[in-house]
Amino acid sequence: MKIGDKVSVLDENLSGIVTSVKGETVVLKDEHGFTHEYHRKNLVMHQKDLYEATPVVRKKETDKPVSKKHNKKPLILDLHFENLVDDPAAYSSFERLFIQKEKLQETLDFCRRNNLKRLEIIHGIGDGTLQNMVLDVLESQINLDFHHNEILRHQSGSVSVLFR
Question: pTM of the full predicted structure?
Answer without folding.
Answer: 0.54
